[in-house]
Design brief:
By secondary structure, the protein is of the alpha+beta class. It has a single domain (about 25-250), classed as outer membrane lipoprotein receptor (LolB), chain A (Clam), CATH 2.50.20. It has four helices and 13 strands. The longest helix has 19 residues, at about 1-20. The radius of gyration is 19 Å and the shape is globular. The termini are far apart.
Length: about 250
């Protein structure tokens, strides 16, 4: 019995430092911004596959999605021109570049082609990724662009908590993990962004960035990105190849 009591006391003491102090929200975003600055990325292209679970029912036919195993998918390209310009293109076989479905954000503006921008999950994917990965550190206050981007989505920096994301521990900015408030999750150790839950694509949706450090994305981009709403997976982008600092024309956005 005494051994159990001592073990429990030791575990409690070990947990106290983590429970006693949490970094302020701005300090967390400063670490995140420094992590992005280390990568020296001014533009980024990510080639992969976009999948809508459950098939193409209710999706416009002009998106050029192929059915496979009950899902609908297409090759896709994510393009970032930092700061604040992000685009998702579908790449149906045989489609000319001008005819490709796309959704793009430039600052607060969302536009697109062939209705992809009107698909809530696709819009959420672009908007969420742009808020988390599409900013550039801001000089004396490198965290300022993220403070502004997340603040525009309603994420408050006044409250910070801890939560588990799989095997990782994350800072949760904006409240507690289970609250229906705008929230941003940042890995406690690596300061990579993990999740963003807010009004995206016209509805409350959650963008999840999965498996940083993979062979396909490294520290530049996660292995996969998912969009969840109402407890269901709505969209998944799986990374196949990442190219840092390609030439990206302004006309794309």
């Amino acid at each position: 019995m005494r051994r159990r009591t001592l073990a429990a006391a030791a575990a409690l003491l070990a947990a106290l430092p983590a429970a006693a102090y949490l970094l302020p929200g701005r300090a967390i975003l400063k670490r995140l911004s420094q992590r992005r600055e280390e990568r020296a990325v001014a533009s980024l292209e990510v080639l992969g596959t976009l999948t809508f679970p459950g098939g193409a029912a209710g999706l416009p036919g002009e998106l050029g999605l192929a059915a496979a195993g009950g899902d609908a998918s297409a090759p896709a390209l994510l393009t970032f021109k930092i700061p604040g310009r992000c685009r998702l293109d579908l790449l149906p076989p045989g489609a000319a570049p001008a005819d490709r479905p796309f959704a793009a954000v430039r600052g607060p503006r969302l536009g697109g082609n062939r209705g992809l921008e009107r698909q809530p999950a696709a819009a959420a994917l672009v908007q969420g990724l742009c808020a988390l990965l599409g900013e550039r550190p801001g000089g004396a206050e490198p965290e300022r662009p993220w403070v502004q981007a997340l603040g525009a989505l309603g994420v408050s920096l006044d409250e910070v908590s801890l939560a588990r994301d799989g095997t990782r521990v994350a800072y949760v900015l904006g409240g507690k993990a289970r609250e229906e408030r705008p929230l941003a999750w940042v890995d406690e150790q690596t300061f990579q962004p993990l999740r963003l839950a807010a009004t995206l694509g016209g509805a409350r949706q959650e963008v999840r960035l999965l498996d940083w450090g993979s062979a396909t994305g490294g520290d530049l981009f996660p292995r996969a990105v998912e969009v969840w709403a109402g407890g269901q997976l709505r969209l998944r982008f799986t990374t196949e190849r990442t190219v840092a600092n390609p030439k990206v024309p302004d006309s794309l956005f």
